[in-house]
Specification:
0% strand; transmembrane; mainly alpha; transmembrane helix; 453 residues; membrane; globular; Oligosaccharide repeat unit polymerase
Length: 453
Amino acid sequence: MIPARQLQSSVLPGARASAPSGVAASSRALTALLTLLYMALFHLIYSVQISPAFAYMGYTLNPSISLGQWAVTALFAVLPLLFLRLDGARPSNFIILLLYLLVYVPAQYMFTALDLTLHHVLLNRMVLLMGLAAMTAVSARPMAVGFDRPVSAGVFRAVLALLFASLFLGVASQFGFGLNLVGLFDVYDIRSEYKDEVGEAGRAFAYAVPYLGIVSAFMVGYGLIKRFFPFTLLGAFSLLYIFGTTGQKSTLFSLLLLIGVAVLYWLNPRKMGQNFVLLLTLFVGAVYVYDLWSRDILASSLFVRRLILTPGLLTVYYLDFFSVNPPAQLGHSFLSSIFPYPYDLRPAFLIGREYFNAPSMSANANLFADAYSNFREWGVLAFSVLLGGLLAFVDGYSRRLTTPVVVVTGLALPAFALTNSALFTSLLTHGLLFSVLLTYLYAASERDRNQSL
């Protein structure tokens, strides 16, 4: 049997570096510079391509941004790097960094870039910083999680295969078995048809499809890392099937995300944060070069506007509106019996009407924006603490694993959903709780193997 101390250190060379102080100051400084370069690149794309083409949709650009405003923006963009854990020793580190790069940094940029008179900008900047800090602090100490009944790796694979088959056959029985390969820019008709079919099929299928996506993505990661390639092929096929059936680009993007996760942990787990920012910066730069070459803005619209800038834009709009209007207090949801809802539209449609002049538009935002819309800064604090506690639980059952990256692949899809969805929606509809259960079972199967060594 491997001693507990030795096993814990085998999680990652230099695993003690998970504390902020364990990452060299030079590495943090380089990560900060890369973050500013990342922000400068998407500012270039926003000012040259996105805003001129999409200003009518709210993507406006302030023509007179002062040097002082840029300095404040840069300061708030890199401040979290003082406390974020930048290594890959824990799954929570990757998830928080994902939220930092795809929600927090774009929002700090949008506070400055938008050609709009906003309310309480400095306070709202600090609210987002507080939320990220609270989430990081609560997840800093992994929970003590035991495995009363560990399962063997063979049993886990059998359960995973059975779960995949059940979900896939259930979804295919409703939507058909054909693999419909469509272009990234030709998905809107398919998405509309899918929504109609889900409405007819019932709510169960609204859960089955994202849950199938989680299982499929996990099988891709598990198969690659454990060299069990039948799972990799089945998972990849299933993700392509879901994309062709639903038109949800995020499902196809998940393949890129899984590849990115594998590359990050392959390069150097101890420099996961630095390499994450580097890869994302290179990706944004490549998108811009491609659009220059193609003389179009389709790639920038899809990969930069939709994935990076829109979460930041909506965060600013939510914080701006609900800082001067009554909070929702979940009166449109499960607290409706306690708090009366003060509006005629749900928050997503309310923002669509107020900022996009489109009351039929559902402007779904991320966990920070949703939290603020319900309870303002106290909501951001409470929801961040709640997610931080869940991540501490995940770290608790992952800390003995020799390959914690497998857990990251299981959490990747619902974690990505947090950049565009409310926390409670992500927990249930997008399957965050389901993915936690799935990766817990995986950790139990690995625990059984470790105990038998």
